[in-house]
Amino acid sequence: MSTSINLAVIPGDGIGQEVVAQGLKVLTAVLPQDVKLETKEYDLGAQRWHRTGETLPDAELEALKHHDAILLGAIGDPSVPSGVLERGLLLKLRFAFDHFINLRPSKLFPNTATPLAGRPEIDFVVVREGTEGPYTGNGGSLRTGTPAEVATEVSINTAYGVERVVRDAYERANSRPRKKLTLVHKNNVLVYAGHMWKNIFDKVGQEYPEVTTDYLHVDAATIFFVTQPERFDVIVTDNLFGDILTDLAAAVTGGIGLAASGNINPTGAFPSMFEPVHGSAPDIAGTGKADPTATILSVALLLRHLGHEDRAVRIEDAVSADLAERDGTFRSTEQIGDALAARVAG
Amino acid sequence: MSTSINLAVIPGDGIGQEVVAQGLKVLTAVLPQDVKLETKEYDLGAQRWHRTGETLPDAELEALKHHDAILLGAIGDPSVPSGVLERGLLLKLRFAFDHFINLRPSKLFPNTATPLAGRPEIDFVVVREGTEGPYTGNGGSLRTGTPAEVATEVSINTAYGVERVVRDAYERANSRPRKKLTLVHKNNVLVYAGHMWKNIFDKVGQEYPEVTTDYLHVDAATIFFVTQPERFDVIVTDNLFGDILTDLAAAVTGGIGLAASGNINPTGAFPSMFEPVHGSAPDIAGTGKADPTATILSVALLLRHLGHEDRAVRIEDAVSADLAERDGTFRSTEQIGDALAARVAG
Ligand SMILES: CC(C)[C@H](C(=O)O)[C@@H](O)C(=O)O
Ligand SMILES: CC(C)[C@H](C(=O)O)[C@@H](O)C(=O)O
């Protein structure tokens, strides 16, 4: 457990600034008196790019390394070509800091609207691989822009990378009451990567005899996400499938306004980074309509990662209680932040 | 419009046999007297593989070429290693016969249970690319089975392949009342393939000024599939995203028992192939529980492809009417087939 937290803050674009402010408010309120919090803000994102053409200069990447953790709001703006900030900033951080565990819990909180009829019980966590698969930026385009163009995308998967995320997922499953782990891939089509994932999944599973395992093709998994989400406990999957499934998971658990995530390097070699799953939502930026809960729940993941389990639980309980008592009247970004800060304080 | 149909039938595995029998029953019942139907069954699938080690020998691939169309039940069995039949038979057919349009309509029929609360109106069609993307079988594995293994999967995309499917999707959108086309990709991460898709989508769009267009990342698309499926009219997307999205679409429109598909080569150079989206469901094979409706709706797509639009509509109307009058009592595979055959006859 850390007795001081030296936090890097990247508010980013759109609603990023607004939700991060509430995340920091709750973090300050929940921290024990004797834990010293220092924050340093980094000006990265669309505005910086427009101003200087830079996405993530080496000096800032280097400076970020020396923090205990990073809190990120949201990156992206329609004024920037698609991919520039994603590849040049967000994914660059995930890859440079070897965030191989992309942790995305999904829980249907009380009194929260789900698009699913019959309100199933939903409480699972997706352990998404964060440093391989089709996200490596490998590939290219030949005769670009001509009728003879060929464009490739290469998914790269290593036993090293797959085993560490699979092992992490078994550990998590083993520590949860239901002890169930589902591998999601598409090994009937992506046979090279898929068979490697499945073989490693089976091999590591021998070390966890108490964990019940299951395999689903990604297409079939989406069916169960809407028809039987209660069947899932821990899911482990590749970078792209994890991206797709966690947005769907957010949708069925009441929306992207509640979905938290951690980009974690469990070795501690580099700082881990915590961010809401949602994007920068430029359409509602500045209106006070953004729900900061996803960021606040990401702060809980951050505290858990730094050893403050009790404070993480305090935030999660506060969110549960807050949602349970919600009466449907509109609350601004700041009002939600204030309410949660008040609940966790003390 | 053809005055004779020389149909290849591949019942395949599990429930394939049962549902195909009902598909043929309805096909026979709906065809005008003066259209001669000839069928030839091909013994392909798990049993054949166990017996002979063959998935799709050259002689049969050659013979299949000479049919007007192919009706396929389902391929796959847990006794066969994952990928063997998929790559060696199903995908081999799609690639050999250049089925570049994988057409998957999604409609929420009356009186059909959806997992979504509030029963949105759903009536869209996914035009999935069928011959490129991560499905080409490109890739490999190095140091297989060792801790130093590297496995790759290469998504190959060509302007040639993308333009023809995008154009087909515009044509379909243009002929529908809402005239709306959504491109789904992930061009903020898969920048090479994604930008090519987007550029071609925009370029071809200039020829269809009446079609309203939209772009969604695949992760965001899954959210809208459950929160606002009514926003979609025609969707065009790559092979893998189309695979994932159409299973999700089937789930929200009342299940995989109703989802039809056509693997179409619009040039007529090779026979097109029609199949339910569902798999071989070995767990219910032989129980009479399989719903043949997806296969019967695939027969409607087959008839439309061969120019018998009126007969296709007759089947679709029969399915609508049949579902509307359904009272919840169990009906066997054969009973559903009989009911639909009776409705379309005359
Ligand atoms: C913005 C994008 C690069 C990112 C991803 O694809 O990982 C986002 O969708 C996410 O899930 O965090
Ligand atoms: C069986 C499998 C190869 C196939 C696919 O991935 O295309 C199936 O899921 C489908 O959607 O038709």
From TrEMBL, chains A, B:
Q: Where is the Isopropylmalate dehydrogenase-like domain?
A: 6-340
Q: Name one GO molecular function term.
A: 3-isopropylmalate dehydrogenase activity
Q: Which cofactor does it need?
A: Mn(2+); Mg(2+)
Under the heading PROSITE patterns, the entry gives: IDH_IMDH
Cite the position(s) of the site with description Important for catalysis.
Y135, K186
NCBIfam families named among the record's database cross-references: PRK03437.1
HAMAP family according to UniProt: LeuB_type2 (MF_01035)
Relate the assembly described in the record. Answer: Homodimer.
What is the name attached to this protein's record? 3-isopropylmalate dehydrogenase
The lineage, from the top, is:
Bacteria, Bacillati, Actinomycetota, Actinomycetes, Kitasatosporales
